[in-house]
Specification:
Layout lengths: L6 H11 L5 H29 L4 H21 L3 H8 L6 H15 L5 H8 L4 H24 L1
Helix pairs in contact: 2-3, 3-5, 5-6
């Protein structure tokens, strides 16, 4: 049986049965969790510079590598999703969220093989981010280039 309802009617039904979102709580948790991830990054940077005598640029590279690896590990251990469930949007701080968006589909589709499972599916979520990120960077780069010409 097919039921034809308008978008307005569907929206009204959905809002009636959906619990209200705790906006301020979500904002607070996103701020705290994102801040904690960034604080961890800063602590790692200071640690790498102090104890491994790395310059800031090299230490920052190692921070990126460490955060990506930790995010992938936490995704593989199914911890990232549990943390994100409570922390909310703060866990999508670009580098950790991007790592999670690549790792999660790769793990989920590993049973389909290395090529058609892991290789094909790992960029399902991250692919659009890469494409639009590149397009945005080209557009912004052109704007800056044109701005500096005049």
């Amino acid at each position: 049986m097919i039921v034809n309802i308008s978008k307005k009617e569907y929206s009204k039904m959905a809002s009636k049965h959906s619990p209200p979102s705790p906006l301020w709580k979500d904002l607070f948790l996103a701020f705290i969790s994102g801040g904690l991830i960034c604080t961890l990054g800063q602590l790692l940077c200071q640690t790498y510079m102090t104890y491994f005598n790395l310059d800031k640029k090299t230490a920052s590279t190692w921070v990126s590598v460490t955060l990506i690896a930790l995010s992938a590990l936490f995704t593989a251990l199914n911890w990232y999703g549990k943390i994100a469930k409570h922390a909310g949007a703060g866990t999508i701080v670009p580098i950790t969220g991007f790592s999670n968006s690549i790792t999660a589909p790769a793990i989920e589709f590993k049973s389909e093989g290395h090529i058609f499972g892991i290789g094909a599916k790992m960029f399902i979520m991250a692919g659009p981010v890469i494409v639009y990120g590149i397009i945005a960077s080209v557009v912004y780069g052109l704007i800056v280039w044109i701005w500096h010409l005049y």
